[in-house]
């Protein structure tokens, strides 16, 4: 079974592309969703985060996302610490998950695939690209973040150009090129 990475900057359309792959019968592991589950359900992780960032980042067992984001997205050392606590757990979740899949390939979706070194051990990488102005508009309407908050998140990811250079396949999500055609072309290559 091939293990394929799917990445792209925040707001590029990775989740939409993932859904299309899922509709083609490809299992997709969304690292963001798995990390969110761990941030609520892993007692060990919750305690580690409270020890590192303070008890007030949780309201009982509910993570105060805005509070944590305000801490980590303005301080690269704190973001690094958060990632060092969460990423090993997500990596293990992926390994366990992919062991039970029954398909010719699986997809690991991650906005920070390269930054977290989650590309190690993958057979190929797909990068979803999108013009920055469209990404910002999508993030504003989807997440309700300010321009400053969006820029802080974008600056913590490697550039789109670098992601493209490190990837094997590129999907252009510019609202001009047909996404489905690009996805099916890549699917046909990977299914062999």
By CATH, the topology is Rossmann fold
- CATH homologous superfamily grouping: P-loop containing nucleotide triphosphate hydrolases
Percentage of residues in helical conformation: 40-55%
Number of helices: 9
Descriptive notes:
This protein is α/β, with parallel strands linked by helices and 192 residues long. It is built from 9 helices and 7 strands. It has a single domain, classed as Rossmann fold, CATH 3.40.50. The strands form 2 sheets. The protein has a 5-stranded parallel β-sheet, sandwiched between helices. The protein has a two-stranded antiparallel sheet with strand order 3-4. The chain is globular and about 50 Å long.
Summarize the structure.
The protein has 192 residues and is of the alpha/beta class. It has helices at residues 14-23, 31-41, 43-53, 65-72, 76-99, 132-143, 147-155, 160-166, 179-190, and strands at residues 2-7, 28-30, 58-59, 62-63, 105-109, 124-129, 169-172.
